Amino acid sequence: MTKTSWKKLFVVVATVAIILPGGVFASNQVSSGNSNVVVNKDQTIDGNYYAVASNVEIKGHVKGDLICAGETVTVSGNIDGDVICAAQIIDVTGTVGGSVRLLARNATIASPVLRNITVVAGALYLSPKADVGMDTVFLADKFNTLGNINGNVFGAAEQVYLGGKIGESVNLKMNDSTDDTTNTPLVILQTAKIDGDLTYEAVSDAKIEKRETIKGQIIKNVSQGSWQDGVWGSVGSLWLWSKIAAVLSAMIIGLMFVIFFRKQSVIMSDKMVESPKRNILWGILILALTPLICLFLLITLIGIPVAIILMMLWAIAVMVAKPLAAIMIGHVIMGRYKHKQKTKKRPEPVNPYTSMMLGVVVTYALLSIPFVGMILAYILAAWTVGTITLMFRELRLKE
């Protein structure tokens, strides 16, 4: 790659670095299972810990970051780094030395968090035991805090209850409607204490039980609350949720490949970089011709079973194409292909998990660009599908 290309990549990486876990060069451990992954109280994890299962329980001590996904996640042990998790239900009751970043249906935090909290959830609750060292940022249907937040609070929600101490200012956007003026979306309980300003955008006035609880100004920006705004707000929320879900799904797929097919994923990345034009052309042919072949097989009636199997394989290949391409992009960013000399051995990525996560974030950030993202998505899908096809072809020839 040219110096200019590397500068561009550096800008992209620097832009998304704030959402990557810290300590990425530490040692890592990975656990996955269909049902349960448990770190017992007497266990200590040196470095980062990755877990994927229906039920994830972290009772022990993790000296790095905790990155996990599942249906239910319970973190009662101490985490020295960040907690980055996606699940239906997430409970954090252990001390977190870094930040907490969650995607959940219901999330509860009932412990000290030394840095920031960033949450997208259906419902987010900070208990009286919660003690956030810096800021709290959220997007939720309901937000309820009785804990201590030393920094600012930024958020958007349909219902907010503030009952704890907030060291700086509060800035909220409430999703209420002009059709229901009796609704009180924002309630400041008498137990609350806000040292800065309270700024909120809403149709209805906030219910403030005791004015003295707010040291700064109370600033209300009147929301238009029009039907169009409601529609576009819903579309925006849906778009944001879809993008977050896509990134997390890609990370889970990438994590599975790194865990179970680490060597093959590296080989695939090498082949993608070595022959990009040939791989992309093959991929375009396969993406275009496979549906036509399946349609022909369906018309023949006899070929219906083959057509169904072929379309399933085609759909799976398209689904995993972008996460696999993201792994390759992560290897590029981490410097695996910066040596042009064919005789020089390529350096291994500093950390396969870091390469994967970095690649996913950069790739899906680029895919979010209007119009350009659509073209890039097709190219990446063709590139990956073409590479996989040629790899299988080479295996058949060797046999």
Topology:
Elements lengths: L2 H14 L11 E5 L3 E4 L4 E2 L2 E5 L2 E4 L2 E2 L3 E4 L2 E4 L7 E10 L7 E10 L2 E2 L3 E10 L4 E2 L3 E10 L2 E2 L3 E5 L1 E4 L2 E2 L3 E5 L11 E3 L4 E2 L3 E5 L4 E2 L9 E5 L4 H34 L1 H13 L1 H24 L4 H30 L18 H16 L4 H27 L1
Parallel strand pairs: 1-4, 2-5, 3-6, 4-7, 5-8, 7-9, 8-9, 9-10, 10-12, 11-13, 12-14, 13-15, 14-16, 14-17, 15-18, 16-19, 17-20, 18-21, 19-22, 20-23, 22-24
- Rg over C-alpha atoms, rounded to the nearest angstrom: 24 Å
Total helix count?
7
Mean pLDDT: 78
Number of strands: 24
Largest sheet: 17 strands, parallel
Inertia-based shape: elongated
User: Level of helix content?
Assistant: 25-40%
Structure notes:
It is a single chain. The protein has a domain at 244-398. The two termini are 35 Å apart. The radius of gyration is 24 Å and the shape is elongated. Helices cover 40% and strands 27% of the residues. With 399 residues, it is α/β, with parallel strands linked by helices. The strands form 3 sheets. It has a 17-stranded parallel β-sheet that branches. The chain has a 5-stranded parallel β-sheet with strand order 11-13-15-18-21, with no helix packed on it. A two-stranded parallel sheet has the order 3-6.
Key attributes of the depicted protein:
single chain; alpha/beta; 17-stranded parallel sheet; 24 strands; 7 helices
Quick gist of this model?
With 399 residues, this protein is α/β, with parallel strands linked by helices.
